[in-house]
Amino acid sequence: MVFGGRQQEAVDKLRGGADREELRAEGTTAAVIDASFTVEPGQIFVVMGLSGSGKSTLLRMLNGLLEPTSGHVKFDGEDLTALAPRELREVRARKISMVFQHFALFPHRSVMENAGYGLEVQGVPRAEREERAIEALRLAGLEGWEKSFPDELSGGMQQRVGLARALATDADLLLMDESFSALDPLIRRDMQDQLLELQKTLKKTIVFITHDLNEAMRLGDNIAVMRDGRIVQIGSAEDILVTPANDYVASFTQDVDRSRVLSARAIMAEPAEGYAMADAPARVHEDTPIVELFTPCSTSEIPVAVVNDAGDLVGVVPRERLLAVLGEPTKTVEANGAASDLTEDEPAKKVIAGA
Fold this sequence. Notes:
This protein is of the alpha/beta class. 36% of the residues lie in helices and 18% in strands. It folds into three domains: 30 residues, no CATH class; 236 residues, Rossmann fold (3-Layer(aba) Sandwich), CATH 3.40.50.300; 67 residues, CBS domain Like (Alpha-Beta Complex), CATH 3.90.1280.20. The longest helix is centred in the middle third of the chain and has 18 residues.
């Protein structure tokens, strides 16, 4: 995505190896460069980076508020960049909802009316609109506040109304742009908890923008790290912590509390021949945070057993491995160009962006 004059010329220069600063000197701004990725159905895909990294511009391309200078955005098998304006508005009204940073509530409308606004735009009859808005407010933890007005609510409650409005439309894709960043830390964590709890039931496809690494690590099934308009790494929180793609990502993650982010699955090793699960000092699920492995690992030389949902042994965590992972990040791996391989026959309801 390029802003300014001579956009196609700027795209050609980027393909030829020019950088952002060179283009800026010529009066154009390359906001997003070669950002290609796929979001799987039911996944929370977090895009994180510092201010100016291009993450919010990227999000606005996903719902057609900005048209890519080059490349395509595909959603549910449709190329959004090829739609006529009326068709794009229909997709945004019915299939894609957005939760903004600063709530964007109508002060003269009640909480229920705000929650049902997207349905009003769709032309849903009033009775059904109210029924769905009330249910969305219940899911967002605002049961009993339907007749209140935004100025009667705290910041966290106002953001819950914004979330309920997005849920009420039953959109396939939720776009969340720094949605919790204006909240106090404790309220912000409550909202993160609320989103994770809702996701267990609703399994929405969510693209979540944040500049906060801990928030990204907590929410993201997959995380894209952006710098200077480019995606420098895509992976799970464990991938990014254990095998950062470059020194930038490694420095970004150096202050993260690994013991609470990484799970037993991320650090487990193959059991040695003759290993007996009955002798292990503890048996933990593969999703167990490694902070909970400190005590069992310290009480025995025998590795802790790691099991799956069925109770089958899938790995072990020796004491030495636990201590090693809690040290410095492992040697960085070469960045993969920040692009997943894309094909024309991706499953439905994926979000595919290439710019």
